[in-house]
Design goal:
The chain is about 60% helix and about 10% strand. Helix 2 crosses helix 8. By secondary structure, it is mainly alpha-helical. It is built from eight helices and four strands; from the N terminus they run H-H-E-H-H-H-E-H-E-H-E-H. The strands form two sheets. It has a two-stranded parallel sheet. It has a two-stranded parallel sheet with strand order 3-4.
C-alpha cells in the first residue's frame, strides 16, 4: 500500500488499481487496515505521495469497500521479526489467501510457506493478475 501511494508507475500501484477494479481480491482485517492507515499517513509518505490525510482515508475506504473482510480466528504471534508483519500473515492465513504480496519476501517466505501461502513480489503478482481473464 505504501509503495502504491509513493509511485504512480510501479507494480504496487497497478495491483491497487486491480483491487479497485475487482481483478484481484484483497483481504483485510481491522488491525491491518488500521496499520496501513497509520503508516500511509506518516509525514514522509504523505510528502512523497503528495496525498493528504483525507486522500489516504478515501483510498482506505475504497479498498475496504472492495476487499474481502477477514475475521482473525487464530493468531500467530510472534511469528515474524516485525510485529506489523504478523498482522499481514494473520490476515492472509485466516483469509486463506493465495499469496502475500510484498517487497519483504525474505522475512515472510519461510513462515508463510509453512502456512500454505505463497509470497510474491509486486511485479510477479501483476504478471499473474494480467494472465487471468
Amino acid at each position: 500500500m505504501v509503495a502504491a501511494i509513493r509511485s504512480d508507475a510501479g507494480a504496487s500501484r497497478r495491483l491497487v488499481a486491480g483491487c479497485l477494479q475487482r481483478r484481484v481480491t484483497a483481504l483485510v482485517s481491522v488491525p491491518l487496515v488500521m496499520e496501513y492507515e497509520a503508516v500511509m499517513t506518516r509525514a514522509e509518505h504523505l510528502a512523497a505521495s503528495g496525498l493528504s490525510i483525507a486522500d489516504v482515508g478515501a483510498l482506505r475506504d475504497a479498498i475496504v469497500a472492495v476487499a474481502e473482510p477477514v475475521r482473525l480466528a487464530f493468531m500467530w504471534r510472534p511469528a515474524l521479526r516485525d510485529a506489523s508483519d504478523d498482522m499481514v500473515l494473520e490476515t492472509a492465513v485466516n483469509g486463506q489467501a493465495d499469496a502475500i504480496v510484498t517487497f519483504n519476501r525474505r522475512d515472510f517466505a519461510p513462515t508463510a510457506a509453512r502456512s500454505g501461502v505463497a509470497v510474491l513480489a509486486p511485479a510477479a503478482a501483476v504478471m499473474q493478475m494480467e494472465k487471468e481473464p
